[in-house]
Every structure is written in structure tokens, then in C-alpha cells.
Write a structure and sequence with these properties.
Helices cover 72% and strands 0% of the residues. The chain is mainly alpha-helical.
Length: 178
């Protein structure tokens, strides 16, 4: 049974990997929205044992994805080659999430919404960063494992240039084993 589930998952991920980049980015966008909702709800649970006092803060659950997705889209979170994830690509994501929390509290202050204290913001940004980091690292490692089995031959290659495209190309060939 485990083998069947793994083979189906492998087939599904390989099909996603081989689709065009718009579909892959749309799937990442949906996963980010899911992570933002889960992180926000979990932050309320961590910050308080019951959710009743936080009914007044329900605007946060709505505004986090509404603010985050345009920030992610316009700051280039989905422009990089998403198939070839490297750990250094997490730093800009963490910076975007910090900007998201600052903007969230600023909008709450401007529209005179009831604001939680700053500790909730720290818990929220920590949860968002942890969840996004974990799912991207796991997804990247899973894709790398699947691709290593698909492409098991390796040849030498020299890339001339040290720009970002050269880095992405090196990452592509390192991960794809072509």
C-alpha cells in the first residue's frame, strides 16, 4: 500500500514538474495561501488558549492572504526558477513576510481596526516563516529525489558567468543531473 501511494505521489509530482511554469506558480500560490491561513489560525491558538477574545481580530485572517499574495507576486517570489530551490532563496521570502506583518499592522492602525499587541505579530511572522520554509524545503527535496531517480547520468559542464542566471543554470543542472 505504501509503495502504491509513493508511486502515485511520485507520478503526480513529476507531472506537475513537467507542466508549464504558470501552472507550477499557480500551485505554489495556492500552497502559500493555505500556509498563510494555517499560520494565522495557529498563531491565534498559540497566542491564546481560546479563540473567543480574538473574534475582534478576524480581519487579520482575511487581510494576511489579501496582502501577502500581491507582495509575493510584485516582489518576485514566483519569478525564480521554482523547480530548483536553494536555501539562500529563503532570505527574501522572510523579508517579504516581515514587510507583510508591518503592512498588516499599519493597515489595522490606519483603518482603526482592533490591533493585537506586538507579540502576536512576532508569533505570526515566525509561524509563516516556519511553515513556508518547511514546505518549500520538503517540496524541493522531494522533487530532487524524484528527479535523481529519473535522470541518473551525470556529465561535466562549465558555466561561464557569475550572474543570477548562471547561478540558476548551475542549480538546474545540479538538481536535474542532465
Amino acid at each position: 500500500m505504501k509503495k502504491l501511494i509513493y508511486s502515485r505521489l511520485k507520478y503526480f509530482l513529476l507531472k506537475i514538474y513537467e507542466t508549464n511554469f504558470f501552472i507550477r506558480r499557480f500551485i505554489l500560490l495556492i500552497l502559500d495561501i493555505l500556509v498563510l491561513f494555517v499560520s494565522t489560525i495557529l498563531s491565534f491558538h498559540i497566542f491564546s488558549n481560546n479563540l473567543i477574545p480574538y473574534i475582534n481580530y478576524s480581519w487579520i485572517i482575511i487581510f494576511v492572504p489579501i496582502l501577502a499574495i500581491p507582495i509575493y507576486l510584485f516582489t518576485g517570489q514566483y519569478k525564480a526558477i521554482t523547480k530548483y530551490f536553494e536555501i539562500y532563496s529563503l532570505y527574501p521570502i522572510w523579508g517579504r513576510n516581515f514587510f507583510l506583518i508591518i503592512l498588516l499592522f499599519l493597515i489595522g492602525w490606519l483603518f482603526n481596526f482592533k490591533l493585537p499587541n506586538y507579540r502576536f505579530g512576532i508569533v505570526l511572522i515566525t509561524n509563516i516563516n516556519i511553515f513556508i520554509t518547511v514546505y518549500r524545503v520538503l517540496l524541493g527535496n522531494l522533487l530532487k529525489t524524484i528527479l535523481e531517480k529519473k535522470y541518473n547520468s551525470k556529465s561535466n559542464l562549465v558555466i561561464y558567468g557569475a550572474g543570477s542566471y548562471g547561478t540558476q543554470l548551475a542549480s538546474y543542472f545540479k538538481n536535474s543531473k542532465e
